[in-house]
Amino acid sequence: MSVWRGRDKSQELERLAELAGEASAEAAMATATAEALEPPAPPAPPDLTAAAFFDVDNTMMMGASIFYFARGLAARKFFTSADLAGFVWQQVKFRLGGRENKEDIKTHRERALSFVAGRTVQELTDISEEIYDELMADKIWSGTRALAQMHIDAGQRVWLVTATPIELAAIISRRLGLTGALGTVAETKDGVYTGRLVGDLLHGRAKAHAVRALASREGLNLKRCTAYSDSQNDVPMLSVVGTAVAVNPDGGLRDVARARGWEIRDFRTGRKAAKIGVPSVLGVGAVAGAVAAGMAYRKR
């Protein structure tokens, strides 16, 4: 019986990952289409079947975007002490146990989303613009940015792929002059957040589903595409493209990259990991740490 339950749960998680990927691809296309209305820079001759996909946390940006986002939201009083207490307790459980309980992740992920329930998309977008300017603009890795520009100069589209909210991801992409972004999609109704996710966080296998879904919509040949990431959690995404590059890799990804012959780029001074605030893994532990740091920032 337990075997069947485990299989059912695995199938449900895969279904949520697929839903998250499809929703992210749809939102990415809609955002990129809207932004394309702005006068673009003179393009290079287009390479229509190739593209590059960049993870954000510790790959394009020093540290985790959700950490900076939480700091910005906390400074604007999105969180209460009761919210903080719940997240900190989950953080303690995660750190002591060394693993994340899927049911706890679901519960606390939904609690995290309650912070935006009832808020408008426009409000969160405006706030995200401010947070980017305040806390993120000077955290971009120049080496990774140069890699993205290399693809742009070759006439290829360049997409960010991140578990951070799609609204914030789109802003980061636009500020960097990229094509668009795949990110976590929160459900909305009439322009207002409901407090629920569409599918799941865009994390792990969900990123691979999103890249496949976008490639199908864009007519991309994945064998001609390139993906960049720092995390072992992104091996599914790195594995669906023809060229995978480990950027500032964690130990797990470095081992996988060496075993598979993937290129490794490290822009960290002295090869020292630049983990700012919280890990790039957007599990409960990361969100809890971000909220805690944000609250501390607000109280200073």
Automatic annotation (TrEMBL):
<keyword id="KW-1133">Transmembrane helix</keyword>
<keyword id="KW-0479">Metal-binding</keyword>
<dbReference type="GO" id="GO:0046872">
    <property type="term" value="F:metal ion binding"/>
</dbReference>
<dbReference type="InterPro" id="IPR023214">
    <property type="entry name" value="HAD_sf"/>
</dbReference>
<protein>
    <submittedName>
        <fullName>Hydrolase</fullName>
    </submittedName>
</protein>
<comment type="similarity">
    <text>Belongs to the HAD-like hydrolase superfamily. SerB family.</text>
</comment>
<dbReference type="InterPro" id="IPR006385">
    <property type="entry name" value="HAD_hydro_SerB1"/>
</dbReference>
<keyword id="KW-0812">Transmembrane</keyword>
<dbReference type="Pfam" id="PF12710">
    <property type="entry name" value="HAD"/>
</dbReference>
<dbReference type="InterPro" id="IPR050582">
    <property type="entry name" value="HAD-like_SerB"/>
</dbReference>
<feature type="transmembrane region" description="Helical">
    <location>
        <begin position="276"/>
        <end position="297"/>
    </location>
</feature>
<dbReference type="GO" id="GO:0016787">
    <property type="term" value="F:hydrolase activity"/>
</dbReference>
<keyword id="KW-0378">Hydrolase</keyword>
<dbReference type="InterPro" id="IPR036412">
    <property type="entry name" value="HAD-like_sf"/>
</dbReference>
<keyword id="KW-0472">Membrane</keyword>
<keyword id="KW-0460">Magnesium</keyword>
